[in-house]
Every structure is written in C-alpha cells, then in structure tokens.
Automatic annotation (TrEMBL):
Protein name listed in UniProt: N-carbamoylputrescine amidase
InterPro entries tied to this protein: Aliph_Amidase/BUP, C-N_Hydrolase, C-N_Hydrolase_sf
Domain CN hydrolase: 6-266
A single GO BP: putrescine biosynthetic process from arginine
Keywords: Hydrolase
Species this protein is from: Bacteroides luti
CDD domains, A to Z: CPA
Membrane-crossing residue ranges in chain numbering: none
Domain of life: Bacteria
Pfam hit, one: CN_hydrolase
C-alpha cells in the first residue's frame, strides 16, 4: 500500500497576560512550523491567554468569545495563508452564562472544519474548570479535514480510555490533545516525576490500545496564582508525538518554549492494527456494564 504521511507541527509556548503578545507569538510559531514543512499544526489548551482557571473570578468570563468570532477569524486567516490544517483551543461563549472549553479545527482554506467541546471537566486545586466550563454536548466525534479524520480531545480528556476508544471507533486517524498541565511547587521531585510519567504513559497507552498516533501539546513556563493561595503552576511542557505502538517520534523538554515538526505515517497505523487486531478481538457482547458509574 502507498505510504500516507503527514508532517505535524507542535507549538509548546509560554504565555503572558498580554493577549496581543500571545497571538503574535502564536502566529510566529505557526509560521516557523510551516517553514519546516508542517501540514497540520496543533496549539496548546487555551493558548490565547494565561491559564485563568487557577482562580474562580467572574471577570475571567470576559475572555470568552463566540464561535465564530474574532479568534476564529484570526486563526482561519492564518490557516488559509499557510495552507495548513490548524487545531486551536478557545474559551467559547455559547450564550450568556453558558461557556465551553472548545477546540476548533480549521482546514487549509481557512474554513472551520469542526469543533469539539471538552467533555471531562476537572475541579482540582488550581484547576477550577467547573466554575467556567459546561461539559461538552456534541460527543466524541472526529473532525474530517483535507488531511484526514482528527480525533481532537482536550487535556483532562486525555486520562480517559473511553474517550480515545470512541474517537477511534468513529474512524479517527490521529488522537490530538491540546493541554495545560503542570506542577505546584510544593510537590516533591518524586511526586513530580510520578505525575509526568503517568500523563505520558496514559496517552501512549491510548496510542497502543487503538493503533493510532497521539499528539499531545502542553504549555510551558510558570504562571502565578492571582489569588496568592498557591505558588502558581509550573507547566511541564513535554509535548510529544507517539506512534501506534506507543513509540516516541518526538518529545519537547519541560522548561523551554519549543516548536517541533515530525512526520507521521498513517499507513503504519494500518499495519500495526493488522499485527495487533485489538478492535477485532474486543468482546463487545460483554461490555454493557461499562456505562455504569460503579458495579456494586
């Protein structure tokens, strides 16, 4: 069979409180990926601003935008200008008092190919996302683009094998995770290592279990807690691309803003699924109880 490949660009960026500065940096980094041949570029979670969910503050809702809106216009123009598929992560204002954490995918002509609303919403110290985001209601639907079907999920979704599986069962060819995750300074070095490794292992396992490449793009750098209750978050970077056997194709470090461009073969996914036919051997007749909260 013909070897079908895609060059994927990952933008691992540090942000400031200056939205215009962040947008300029994003545009420059997208261009840098394109200059290395990227056909698909993936940005980190909530990339326009600082990670505002460290505190519960109603003023932060002012950061939200309708879709379509100013940001979709900005990124659509970039996608069209460079002839790329672009995966973005936006704070969506759907209606007054109703907001989502939404990934928007643009095709090579700048049009919106589709969107995904984050389904799993965390509520942990420094990650108060339930205050801001309503869980998604459009399901686990891959987004069809000119480069293929993209299974776009967002951050906390990356811990759930059910989400990855449903994307794969609906024909996703790549799993993509825009992300914002990091360490609190009070964590010990051992604990930091455990957290990071668990994050990587979980996503590599999705690649293996579904025979698909995984692209995970995290932000990097320190962001202060506006409330002063914690020492803020040190986002751990480590953006990576893994192949359908969990193999690393590329991985960024944990301290520096980085652009990575890597070529991924989708034909390899077909071959791996022939060698390891997990979808063939699933006992779908015995999985009915998986939809229960707990089996007592």
């Amino acid at each position: 069979m013909d070897n079908r490949t895609i060059k994927i660009g990952l933008v691992q960026q540090s942000n400031t409180a200056d939205l215009k500065e962040n947008l300029k940096k994003l545009a420059d980094n997208i261009e840098a990926c394109v200059s290395q041949g990227a056909q698909l570029v993936v940005l980190q979670e909530l990339h326009n601003s600082l990670y505002f969910c460290q505190v519960e503050d109603t003023n932060n809702f002012d950061l939200a935008e309708p879709i379509p809106g100013p940001s979709t216009g900005f990124y659509g123009e970039l996608a069209a200008a460079h002839g790329i598929v672009l995966v973005t992560s936006l704070f969506e204002k759907r209606a007054p008092g109703l907001y989502h954490n939404t990934a928007v995918v643009f095709d090579t002509d700048g049009s919106i190919a589709g969107k995904y609303r984050k389904m799993h919403i965390p509520d942990d110290p420094a990650y108060y996302e339930k205050f801001y985001f309503t869980p998604g209601d459009i399901g686990f639907q891959p987004i069809q683009t000119s480069l293929g079907k993209l299974g776009v999920l967002v951050c906390w979704d990356q811990w759930y094998p059910e989400a990855a599986r449903l994307m794969a069962l609906r024909g996703a060819e790549i799993l993509i995770y825009p992300t914002a995750i990091g360490w609190e300074s009070s964590d010990t070095e051992d604990e930091k290592s455990r957290q990071l490794n668990a994050w990587i292992i979980s996503q590599r396992a999705h690649a293996v279990a579904n025979g698909l490449p995984v692209v995970s793009v995290n932000r990097v750098g320190h962001e202060e807690d506006p409330s002063g209750n914690t020492n803020g978050i040190q986002f751990w970077g480590n953006s990576f691309v893994a192949g359908p056997q969990g193999e690393f194709f590329a991985q960024a470090g944990n301290t520096e803003a980085t652009n990575i461009v890597v070529e991924v073969s989708l034909t390899r996914s077909e071959n791996v699924r022939r060698w390891w036919p997990f979808l063939r051997d699933r006992r779908i007749d015995e999985y009915g109880e998986i939809t229960k909260r707990f089996i007592d």
